[in-house]
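Sample log: Response regulator.
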Amino acid sequence: MTALTNERPMCPVCKHRMGLARISPAQKGIEERTFECSTCERTETVAFAVDPMNTDAVGWLAGELKPPQ
């Protein structure tokens, strides 16, 4: 299942909005995002098509974090 990157799914059991629990890499150009329902504790994993330069991880590339010298 592929969805929009800013979309938080509704829980199919209790119909509450689910929260993002973790983001995992999948095949090239895809992220798997795991959502958890805080009401009934159900988890759902959703595949998101991503552009590697527009992913949330880009902030790390542009940050002040540098290797030791």
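Observation: The chain has one domain: 1-53.
Observation: The CA atoms of residues 27 and 33 lie 13 Å apart.
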